[in-house]
Amino acid sequence: MAELEYRILGPLEVLCDGRPVAMRAAKQRALLVSLLVDANKVVPTDTLVTRLWDEPPDGARNALQNYVLRLRRTLSGPSGGSPSRPDGPIRTCAGGYLIDVPDEALDLHRFDALLARARAAAAAQAAERASALLGEALALWRGEPFSDVPSERLQLEALPALNERRLGAWELRTDADLQLGRHTAVLPHLRELTAAHPLQERFWAQRMLALYRSGRQGEALECYRTVSALLLEELGVDPGAELWQLHQRMLTADSSLTVPASAEGPRAKGNLPAETTTFVGRESMLQKTRKLLENARLVTLTGPGGVGKTRLALRAAAEASWAFPHGAWLADLAPLTEPRLLDRAVAEALGVPDQSLRTGTAVLVEHLRERQLLLVLDNCEHVAEAVGHLLGTLLRAAPGLRVLATSRQGLRVPGEYLLPVPPLTVPPERGTPPTLTRCEAVRLLADRAEACAPHFRITGRNQEAVASLCRRLDGIPLAIELAAVRLGTLSAEEILERLDDRFRLLSDTGARTGPEHQRTLRGVVDWSHDLCDERERRLWAGASVFSGGFDLAAAEAVCPGEDTTREDIVDVLAALAHKSVLTVGTAGPRARYQMLETLRQYGQRRLQERGRDTPLRRRHCAYYGNMTTRAATQWCGPDEVAWLTRLRLESPNLRAALDFCVTGKGDATAALEIAANLTRTRYWFFSSSLGEGRHWLTRALELAPQAPVPLRVGCLALTAWIALCQGDQPAAEHFLAEAVKLSSGRVDDEAQAVLSHMEGAVAFLVHRDVRAIELLAQARERFRAGGQVGDAHMATMLWAMATAFLGEREPALAASRAYTTEANAHGADWAHSWALWTMGFTELRHGDPHRAAGLFRDSLRRQRAIGDRWGPVWGVEAIAWAVAATGDHGRAARLIGAAGRLLRTTGVALTGLRPFHDVHIEAERLVRRALGERAYTAAFAEGAGTRDPIRLALGGTAAR
Q1: Under DSSP, is residue 362 helix (H, G, I), strand (E, B) or coil?
Q2: What is the pLDDT of residues 356-406, one digit of tens each?
């Protein structure tokens, strides 16, 4: 499940898996902050009301419930909720509400925890540790809390206490730094603190002491005179005892005012290299790494090459080094080629001299036994087994040793904690400029480009290219840094155009830092490839034919070959996941394997080199073709929603199979079959991608003129159906005419059923011809006779709709009941949602509009629950018709506006669907007459501007 993170130490920010969650409404922000300042506690309803409204209106409690509902949707939307908590983190409790916030998910909690640890360190005379912890705590503050939250009550209740905690942290940090002899370094900030808080005597005392120790005794005494005058003028008092005593000691040149000797004794600094570039992002990963190092003795950062394991390890080690009196030490194992020399290489990195005949392991044990030391072992993957053996010995013999390792695979040492390092966060597909620059990948690109391409800026013109570039580079830091170098000579758009050859484009650009295998994208991936055995390399190459991920069954069907049997696949997949070539998701009913696009392209090249590309793509096409056949066969049954969900998940693989069939060495007839089956399962409708379905059908028809006639007739009819649903009447009639012409003279029951269905659909939706009822009834019976359950159901649906539109009351009611009975008998959720819609329309035309509105809403709820993207377009539109008929004209106008927004989004043209268009025009005219043009236009605009038309249709307000 996705993780939410909240930040209130500055303007409110909410992140879901590192990506910003929009909080546009002011009251929504105020409510969330009101809950967060008392996180994990019940906040009384009355308290929330006074925090949201300076003068609570009538019905404030009901309004609060509405805001809580909206906030729940906002927070549970990105995270998906959980089976146990579908409403997300906000709970309704007796007397109020509570927000569940896990450890470290709120910056205020992290600040308080760090402050408590710092106080404990200061009490134990560990000044360096205290200073580091306080620096980390104060870095969490991004500005003035609640600055974007319009709540005077919150400003008065919570803000002063927060600022006091912050000032207390600065006092403690300055004390620790003064104890460490950093008197010169603290002076600039103390000057700011005394200016901002002139009556805080503690800051003046610290400033005087820092000046005195810096040899600026005159300025220190002048500070005393300044604060004395301020206190007398503002408060009418003299300086307190601390300031007065410090002043007296300075006048007598008290020797105790000099820098104290360290209570911690001499410390070894280690050998960590200084950073040469800025460290960007990774805040949450740094926190996780530091927390693990506090509790675990061996932490291994894993992940694919170039993902940033080394940089993260060095930064985490540097920040944790204060806790190790004998320092933090780096041993880079990349140059090591002989595992038997591992112990000697580590001893050399630790600076351990030894000329004896003892083994390197014995030397290390003696050196480390009494030391408290952090050892960073970098690039362990090629000697992972030897590292595991060595660490097993050292960790048992040296209780003060902690190890932070980086490797593309785990070390398999007892007590080892694995921490996978993900790529940097990348912009969502529909990012906006503010969210764009918050993404780690974009920040890294901009930072590195500033050094090597100073003319480069992220602008409104190139922001989409920048976002796409970071996404296509998978957020891999090495790839992004190499792309930044190219920005010196190419635009972001030009780099994006050349990414299909990324291994050449992102090659060595002149840098000479780091091992050779870490300087280029190809070198990094070659290194991972070399660490795999032959079976793993073959499966890496074979799995590259998948797009967007795959499951075990797919890999077992497509990838066996040579010495890898179907039974071996699961073990080889596990090995590739262990070596960070694959990632595994287990949230769904089937484990899902994925490969970064960079690793996938590398695998494709290897597959081509092996000459296996075309055979495996044919297997891939056959596997997914068979999947669509099974989906179409089981359409209109209890598993139809599961199939639609699975097909949506497999969309990238289905596109890859279709693309291979029409552009590669595949079979265009196979493309026809796949596209036809996807249309018969209503996949294009469910996914709201009718244009794509029409593209594949027409393309395959062009390339497969010799395909079996029944298949071509069926595909022409299905293409006509899609064109008809898009409102493209001329194209629909053209495709239907082609189908009739092709089937001329043939006696084929299946073809006749298809043609009757489409002729009935055109008669109904284009010509509003009553003959449609009979044609659709014939198609229904012919499909049934042929055992085509799904097609028969679609004919039944259109027959019932046509009867409701064009027939009399009793036949219309009978047809809708027959359709509902059939949908219930099949146990088909999608079909049942449309049966409710059809019953609603029958009621609207021949019965009670209030009942019709209720049926439409039931249908819409079901469609929303199953993730249907096509049905809700008609649900919102139909509810608008029904509400208009009930006389609620203002609401009807808002719903017409909201429906128009959905129609535009899906590209549906009502003008091409005559019966629906006629009803729409009737409802619109009725509402316009009742409201008047001005009121209608305002209400329509309000509905058209809503962010959630479905919510509005189900009874909510038009939230913008």
Answers
A1: helix
A2: 778 889 999 999 999 999 999 999 998 999 999 999 999 999 999 999 999
Per-residue pLDDT at 87 exceeds 80: no
Report residue 591 as tokens.
């484990």
CA distance 671 to 622: 10
* Lookup: tokens for 121: 């360190």
Sign of CA dihedral 190, 191, 195, 201: positive
Q: What are the pLDDT digits (tens) for 126-163?
A: 888 888 888 888 888 888 888 888 888 888 888 888 98
Map residue 4 onto helix, strand or coil.
Answer: strand
Query: Is residue 306 within 8 Å of 350, Cβ to Cβ?
Result: no
d(CA 423, CA 243): 52
Q: In 667-770, which ranges are continuous DSSP H helix? A: 668-680, 683-686, 690-703, 709-725, 729-743, 749-765
pTM of the predicted model as reported, rounded to 2 decimal places? 0.69
% of the chain surpassing 90 pLDDT:
33
Which helix (H) or strand (E) covers residue 896, if one does?
A: helix 889-906
Tokens found for residue 345: 């290489």
Close Cβ partners of 709 (under 8 Å, ≥ 6 residues apart):
742, 743, 746, 748, 751
Residue found under tokens 């819409």: 860
Residue 431's pLDDT band, with cuts at 50, 70 and 90, is very low
- Identify the three-state secondary structure at position 198: coil
Q: How far apart are CA 414 and CA 473, in angstroms?
A: 35
Longest Cα separation, the chain: 119
- Locus of tokens 């990632």: 583
Residue 248 neighbours by CB under 8 Å, 6+ apart = none
Measure CA 3 to chain center.
10
Residue 104 near residue 139, CB atoms below 8 Å: no
pLDDT, residue 437, reads 66
Secondary structure of residue 143 in the 3-state scheme: coil
**What is the tens place of the pLDDT at every residue in 529-577?**
888 889 999 999 999 999 989 999 999 999 998 777 888 899 999 999 8
Of the candidates 298, 356, 292, 280, the one whose C-alpha atom is nearest the C-alpha of residue 320 is 292
What span, in angstroms and rounded, lies between the C-alpha atoms of 363 and 376? 18
The set of residues, in sequence order, having a beta carbon less than 8 Å from that of 512 and lying 6+ positions away, is: 519
Instruction: Identify the three-state secondary structure at position 800.
Output: helix
Tokens of 593: 């394997």
Alpha-carbon distances, residue 604 vs 174, 368, 542, 549 (angstroms): 57, 47, 8, 15
Q: Which amino acid is at 575?
A: A
Give the DSSP letter string of 908-930. --GGGSHHHHHHHHHHHHHHHHH
Separation of alpha carbons 714 and 788, rounded Å: 13
Closest CA to 174 of 196, 197, 191: 191
Average pLDDT in the chain: 86
pLDDT above 90: residue 700: yes
Q: Which residue has the tokens 């409104």?
A: 460
Per-residue pLDDT, 126: 81
Q: Identify the CA nearest to 773 among candidates 760, 754, 784.
A: 760
Consecutive H or E run containing 540: helix 534-543
Buried b (16+ CB within 10 A) or exposed e, 590-615: eebbbbbbbbbbbbeebbeeeebbee
Are 762 and 914 in contact, with CB atoms under 8 Å apart? no
pLDDT at 417 over 60: yes
CB < 8 Å & 24+ apart, contacts of 465-468: 465/491, 465/492, 465/493, 465/496, 466/436, 466/442, 466/492, 467/426, 467/427, 467/431, 467/436, 467/439, 467/442, 468/496
pLDDT of residue 785: 87
3-state secondary structure of 276: coil
Alpha helices by DSSP H, listed for 321-432, are: 342-349, 360-368, 384-397
pLDDT in the model for residue 960: 46
3 state SS of 379:
coil
Give the separation between CA 100 and CA 75, rounded to whole angstroms: 12
Of the pLDDT bands very low, low, confident and very high (cuts 50, 70, 90), residue 254 is: confident
